[in-house]
Amino acid sequence: xxxxxxxxxxxxxxxxxxxSASLAAVTGSKALPRTEVAKKLWAxxxxxxxxxxxxxxxxxxxxxxxxxxxxxxxxxxFEMTALVxxxxxx
Length: 90
Hints:
Blueprint: H1 11-14, E1 18-19, H2 21-27, H3 34-47, E2 58-60, H4 63-68, E3 74-76, H5 77-85, E4 88-89
Antiparallel strand pairs: 1-4, 2-3
């Protein structure tokens, strides 16, 4: 029986990306891979209790996140990743 090879993370996924000024307010201005951006974003959301208490998939934006979310007061988790990726550049 062949042993299953350990999955390697995609190089593109791990490439450091530079955040926009509005995203840098949350993650810092250093270039980070997407995985780190997501970690820092969730840490910020949890620290500021921005996850909706009834619908946990909804993120309620404060003034800092509203700039990242294109002015929206509330977005769902899946929408959030699409909006955040617009603020990352190589």
